[in-house]
Amino acid sequence: MARVAGVDLPREKRGGIAVTYIYGIGKPTAINILKKANIDGNKRVKAWTDEETARVREIIERELKVEGDLRREISMNVKRLMDIGSYRGIRHRRGLPVRGQRTHTNARTRKGKTRGVMVKKKPVAAAAPAAPAAAAAPKAGA
Fold first, then answer.
1. Rounded to whole angstroms, how far apart are CA atoms 2 and 18?
2. Which of 3, 95, 111, 136 has the highest count of CB atoms within 10 angstroms of its CB?
3. Which of 66, 7, 9 minimizes the C-alpha distance to 39?
């Protein structure tokens, strides 16, 4: 099993697709990595030798910021925007779309599930006088 950057690559997939399972690597980058490592992009991961896996791992570690480091950098960038109080930071803090999308309709992914309109409850009628009278009446057996 090929393990690169802390991710187990799927064995049955072609190399060009399997490398995209690493956070921060898309199709074009994956193809470039495999070219630099001299590996055919159509070759399945299960057919890779240990040497080929090591070359891919070494290229990714040397040239790219992926997985944990990339996630940490992105979260720090968002936190910085929120701390300085920029427009984008305020949108992040409120959980609204950041890149100018409309919010009157749509934006459900960012805003979350819809909250229905509150329905006013009908006022409860005064308790029937028979119920308190029955509780106050002496029991026949006493």
1. 10
2. 111
3. 9
Q: Exposed/middle/buried for 67, CB within 10 Å: 0-12, 13-18, 19+?
A: middle
Lowest average pLDDT, out of 34-43, 79-88, 94-103, 119-128, goes to: 119-128
DSSP 13: S
Q: What pLDDT is recorded for position 31?
A: 94
For residue 127, what are the CA distances in angstroms to 120, 121, 132? 20, 17, 8
**What one-character-per-residue DSSP string does 65-129 give?**
--HHHHHHHHHHHHHHHHHHT-HHHHHHHHT--SSS---SS--HHHH-SPPPPPPPPPPPPPPPT
- DSSP run (H or E) holding 42: none
pLDDT of residue 79: 96
Count Cβ atoms within 10 A of the Cβ of residue 142 and give its class: 0-12 exposed, 13-18 middle, 19 or more buried. Answer: exposed
Neighbour count for residue 97 (Cβ, 10 Å): 15
